[in-house]
C-alpha cells in the first residue's frame, strides 16, 4: 500500500467583529445606525451619504464575504465600496449574498454605502481571507524498475481511482527528471497533490477526496498520453491500494482481545 497526503488548506479566521450587530460596537458609522434589537446595521441615504464600515482589509489580498440585505428600497445608490470609492458590490435586492473580491486600495476600510435616497439594512456580515492551498509533495515507494528496463524516453502514467466515488486522477512522471529515482529493488516516485485538474502531465494532480483508492502505474512511450488503452502503453508495471489523507499523521487502532484457549490432552 502507498500513502498520499492531500494539499494543505489554511482556513483563515473571521475578520469582522460584531457581524451579527448584537452590540452597538466595532462598527464605524456616519449617517447610519446599529439596531441591536433587530440585529442589523441601518443605512439611510436620503439627503446624506450614509456609511457603515470596519477597517479590516489588506491591499492586494483576496477575500470572501457573506451578508444579508433587507429593507432595500430600490432607489438611489446602494453598494459596498473601498475607501477610494471603488465598487466592490452593487446592492440591488434583498437577500443573502456571498462574494469574492480582491482589495485594491491602500486603506483598510470596507464600507457599506447608501446615498441619493437609497436605503437598506445589513446583517450577518462575514469577511475572511480566501483559504490558501499549499500543494503537498509525496514520496511513493514502489517496485517497478525490475519489471522493465526504463530508459530516458519511457514515461510513467499513474492512474488513481477512488473506491468511494469511482472518480479518476491521472498524471505522468518522467524518469529523466528528479521526480523518479530508480534502484534495484525499491523505486521512489515524487507525486504532488495540488492544483485544480485531475488529469495532468507534470506530476502535480488533484486527488478529489481522502479515503481508499486503487493505483496503477504504466510504462509508456508518450509524454502526454493519459489513455490507459492507448498503443503508447508498453505494459502495466504495478497496481495496488492507496490511502489518501488530509493530514500527515496516520492513525492506527489497537484492539485488545481476551481469548481463552482450551488445551485437550489425551491421557
Report on the architecture of this protein.
With 267 residues, this protein is mainly beta. The protein folds into two domains: 11-129, Jelly Rolls, CATH 2.60.120.260; 135-245, Immunoglobulin-like (Sandwich), CATH 2.60.40. It has no helices and 21 strands. A five-stranded mixed β-sheet has the order 1-21-20-15-16, with no helix packed on it. The chain has a five-stranded antiparallel β-sheet with strand order 3-6-11-8-9, with no helix packed on it. The protein has a five-stranded antiparallel β-sheet with strand order 4-5-12-7-10, with no helix packed on it. A hairpin with a 5-residue loop joins strand 17 (180-181) and strand 18 (187-193). It is elongated, with a radius of gyration of 29 Å. The model has no long low-confidence stretch (mean pLDDT 91).
What is the helix fraction of residues, given as a range? Answer: under 10%
CATH class division of the largest domain: Mainly Beta
End-to-end Cα distance, whole Å, is: 49 Å
Query: Which homologous superfamily in CATH is the superfamily of the largest domain?
Result: Galactose-binding domain-like
Q: Helix-strand pattern, N to C? A: EEEEEEEEEEEEEEEEEEEEE
The CATH topology of the largest domain: Jelly Rolls
Strand-pairing-aware structural class: mainly beta
- The total of beta strands comes to 21
Shape: elongated
For the largest beta-sheet, the strand count, sense and barrel status come to: 5 strands, mixed
Amino acid at each position: 500500500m502507498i500513502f498520499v497526503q492531500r494539499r494543505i488548506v489554511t482556513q483563515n479566521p473571521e475578520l469582522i467583529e460584531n457581524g451579527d450587530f448584537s452590540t452597538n460596537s466595532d462598527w464605524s458609522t456616519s449617517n447610519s445606525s446599529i439596531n441591536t434589537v433587530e440585529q442589523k446595521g441601518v443605512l439611510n441615504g436620503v439627503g446624506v451619504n450614509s456609511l457603515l464600515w470596519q477597517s479590516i482589509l489588506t491591499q492586494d489580498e483576496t477575500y470572501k464575504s457573506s451578508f444579508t440585505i433587507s429593507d432595500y428600497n430600490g432607489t438611489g445608490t446602494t453598494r459596498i465600496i473601498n475607501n477610494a470609492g471603488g465598487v466592490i458590490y452593487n446592492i440591488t435586492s434583498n437577500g443573502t449574498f456571498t462574494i469574492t473580491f480582491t482589495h485594491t486600495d491602500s486603506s483598510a476600510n470596507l464600507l457599506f454605502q447608501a446615498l441619493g435616497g437609497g436605503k437598506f439594512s445589513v446583517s450577518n456580515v462575514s469577511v475572511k481571507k480566501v483559504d490558501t492551498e499549499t500543494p503537498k509533495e509525496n514520496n511513493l515507494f514502489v517496485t517497478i524498475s525490475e519489471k522493465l528496463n526504463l530508459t530516458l524516453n519511457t514515461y510513467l502514467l499513474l492512474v488513481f481511482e477512488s473506491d468511494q466515488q469511482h472518480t479518476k486522477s491521472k498524471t505522468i512522471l518522467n524518469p529523466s527528471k528528479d521526480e523518479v529515482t530508480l534502484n534495484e529493488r525499491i523505486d521512489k516516485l515524487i507525486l504532488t497533490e495540488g492544483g485544480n485538474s485531475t488529469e495532468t502531465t507534470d506530476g502535480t494532480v488533484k486527488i478529489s477526496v481522502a479515503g481508499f483508492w486503487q493505483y496503477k502505474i504504466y510504462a509508456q512511450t508518450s509524454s502526454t498520453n493519459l489513455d490507459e488503452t492507448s498503443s503508447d502503453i508498453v505494459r502495466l508495471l504495478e497496481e495496488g491500494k492507496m490511502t489518501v489523507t488530509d493530514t500527515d499523521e496516520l492513525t492506527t487502532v489497537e484492539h485488545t482481545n481476551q481469548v481463552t484457549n482450551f488445551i485437550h490432552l489425551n491421557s
